[in-house]
Amino acid sequence: MAQKTNRVNSYNISGTDITLRRGDCVLMRPAESDTPPYVARVERLVADDGNNEMMVRVRWYYRPEDTEVGRRVFHGEKEIFLSNDYDMQSTQTIQGKCVVHTLQQYLKLKYVGVDDYFCRYEYDAGERDPDVAAGERFTPKRVTVYCKCNNPYNPDTYMVQCDTCKSWYHPSCLDLKNEDVEKLDKFFCSRVCQEDAE
């Protein structure tokens, strides 16, 4: 006999003050105690009458180090990627809620809490196609890059804007120290920009 399941709109996890709704982002308890919690988005809440248990269909977020490409210098510490990897999980594996912001929302936060993350890419976590390069598994395919290093913006890395050309740079890419650049009234990325300003 097939198990009966019913979709529900919200669910209070017993013994906690956590109320789940579709679209909430949650922290899922990992099997290993030294592993950070997994992050997922609740797609659906399902009451499993056969097992008398509440289940959630989740869409997983991946950390950069969990992808084929790995963590790169431009990935922020709190950056995660929305994947096309779905799963059914017991609500008992949820240890709390979190907030996944867009990069723009994240940059506007006055305080970044332990449960704040940001996402600017989607990641195709499907079966590995040998004809598809690892970098092609991300959407969007192109993003704005900055500095001489041509990397996307990392909110955890200090950058400074040239007062003439308005381009952004990492001081270290120009062989400068952050503390020296912070003392300047005006910053010029090159002698040409400095001469143009005079």
TrEMBL record:
Domain BAH, residue spans: 18-134
Q: Which residues form the signal peptide?
A: none
Q: Which domain of life is it from?
A: Eukaryota
| Record's keyword terms, sorted | Metal-binding, Zinc, Zinc-finger
Q: Which Pfam families match?
A: BAH, PHD
Q: Which InterPro entries match?
A: BAH_dom, BAH_sf, Znf_FYVE_PHD, Znf_PHD, Znf_PHD-finger, Znf_RING/FYVE/PHD
Return the protein name: Chromatin regulator PHD family
- Organism, per UniProt? Helianthus annuus (Common sunflower)
> What does the organism's lineage look like at the top?
Eukaryota, Viridiplantae, Streptophyta, Embryophyta, Tracheophyta
